[in-house]
Structures are given as structure tokens and as C-alpha cells.
Amino acid sequence: MSSQVQLLDASPFEPSHRRRVNAAAQARTSSPGDGGLPIELSGVFKAFGQREVLKGLDLTVEAGEFVVVVGRSGGGKSTLLRLVAGLERPSAGRVAIDTQAVAGPQRAARMMFQDARLLPWQTVIGNVGIARGPQWRAKALEALTAVGLADRAEDWPRLLSGGQRQRVALARALVGRPKVLLLDEPFGALDALTRVEMHQQLTGLWREHRFTSILITHDVAEAAALAERVLVLREGSLALDLLIPHNKQRRAASEAELAALQARILAAV
Q1: Where are the beta strands (DSSP E) in the chain?
Q2: CB 3.0–4.6 Å: which of 73, 82, 197, 256 could bond 87 by disulfide?
Q3: Where are the beta strands (DSSP E) in 1-103?
Q4: Which of these, 86, 93, 85, lies nearest to 52 by C-alpha position?
Q5: What is the pLDDT of residues 27-45, one digit of tens each?
Q6: How far apart are CA 99 and CA 78, in angstroms?
Q7: 73/75 Cα distance (integer angstroms)
Q8: Which of 194, 254, 204, 201 is nearest to 224 (CA)?
Q9: Rounded CA gap, 255 and 264, in Å?
Q10: CA-to-CA distance for 164 and 162, rounded, in angstroms?
Q11: Residues 157-179: pLDDT tens digits?
């Protein structure tokens, strides 16, 4: 987003219930990208048998916003993503994308997992263009170019490194130009340097296309590096909802800012 984005308060970490003066919407309007769609959860409960995973969750994600959800294992993070994707139905409450109730898998949304889940009998380009359709090869090659793997289009997945396989998975998720991208710990199994490269690639693509993104992670440093907004989900409820000014304004954060941010997130986990 533009460096002209202004916050209502000068405090270093602004609680997200203090809304911006529509600066985010203005920045998206001037963006050359495709744009995203808003997501809303209203009074969402989700139970598996007697175990209640989400407990009356109310959440609004703005169109084009990059949200990172942090929390302990079993806290409901992946369930939240699956509800938005339409892979699960809420036990009560409503999930909507662009005001339309989610009642099944969403064409506007794509999901990326920790495991790349590539088909070994398909080439790289075949995996990216797995849905086929008109001009699928050209579209798949464009997506591979965006993640820096056009030269590996005809290779088999077994010839790729772990990081390269995740790049292919990212290209597959983005090939249809989704309005919503859901990422379930996609970088958790990668080495530190590859993770940084993937962070840079993801944020670059997000800035270009402005899809709405929700990423799940256990890594507080990853959340601080990527998020416009951090949510802490604890035992099925929101324990923290925090805007990240330096990521919104696209400026480098100081070490002191990052340390304070990470401490605040850790205290809420």
C-alpha cells in the first residue's frame, strides 16, 4: 500500500478496532492489481462431537487485507481457514465472502497447505494447470514465471527441492487469479533462508494483485514480517486483534518495534 497511509493514532501498534480513514480502500482503488473480496464471520461456532473448536467468533477481513492468524495447536486456526474455504460448515453462525454465505467450496478462494501436494505423475506445468480449461498452459506458465520457475515447467516434481515444490504450490493457488488466498502454515517445513525467499515472493505477489489473504502460522516472527494485521486465536476465541503500522506503510520496522510487537503477540498466545 501507499506510504501515504495514515493511522488515526500515533501509537506504535494500533488495535484494529480503531479504523483507518478509509486509506486502505483508497490505496486498493489505485492499485493495478486484481483486488480481493471481504470476508465476514458472524457468531461462528464449530464443534467436532463434544469438542467446541470455535466459540462465537466475530471477524471481518477487509478486501485486499493481509491477515496472519497465530495460535497454539488445536486453537481453531485451520478450522477457521476451512470454514472460509467452504470445506467445513459452521455448527452455528454465518461465514460470508463478499456478503454471500459460504455454503461449499468457493471459486473465488484458493488454499495452500504446508505440504505442496503435487501429483507425481504430472509435470510441474501440469500440476499448476491441473484444472485445465481454456489456454491453461499459457496461464500456468505465467503463474510459474511469477514464482521464478518457468524454466522448470516440464520437470517432474521429484526433481525439485522442498522450496521449489512450495513455489509450484503457490503458482497453482494463484493461477486462477483468486480473490481470496488461504495459507495453512505453508512455509513451516522450509529452511530459514527459503522461508525468507518465500515471504518476499508472497508479499510481492500480494502487492501486485491485492487478493485478500489469511495465513496461519505458529511463528511470531513470520507474523510480524508478513501481516498487515495479526490475530491471536486462543481456545476458539480472539485473544488479540492488532494492526501492524510498519507493514501497512511499507517501511522497515526497527528492531525495537519488532521486539515489542512479538512480545505483545506472545503474551496473548
Answers
A1: 39-48, 51-61, 66-70, 92-97, 100-101, 109-113, 180-184, 212-217, 229-234, 237-243
A2: 82
A3: 39-48, 51-61, 66-70, 92-97, 100-101
A4: 93
A5: 333 344 468 999 999 999 9
A6: 22
A7: 6
A8: 254
A9: 14
A10: 5
A11: 999 998 899 999 999 998 888 99
Residue 226 — very low, low, confident or very high, per pLDDT cuts 50/70/90?
Answer: confident
Residue type, 69: V
- Please report how many Cα atoms fall inside a 13 Å half-sphere around the Cα of residue 60, on the Cβ side: 7
Q: With helix as H, strand as E and coil as C, how does 115-155 read?
A: CCCCCCCCCHHHHHCCCCCCCHHHHHHHHHHHCCCHHHCCC
Name the grid cell of 52: 467446541
Helix (H, G, I), strand (E, B) or coil at 77: helix
Q: What's the confidence (pLDDT) of residue 19? A: 39
- Which of 237, 199, 217, 213 has its CA nearest to residue 46? 237
Q: Could you read off the pLDDT of 55-111 as tens digits, one per residue?
A: 999 999 999 999 999 998 888 999 999 999 999 999 999 999 999 999 888 888 999
In angstroms, the CA 210 to CA 37 distance is 9
Nearest Cα to Cα of residue 148 among 127, 173, 170, 133: 170
What pLDDT does residue 252 have?
64
Q: Does domain 1-108+179-269 have CATH number 3.40.50.300?
A: yes
Backbone phi and psi for residue 70, each to the nearest 5 degrees, phi listed first:
-115, 145
Cell digits of residue 61: 477481513
Grid coordinates of 53: 473448536
Residue 168 has which C-alpha cell? 509450484
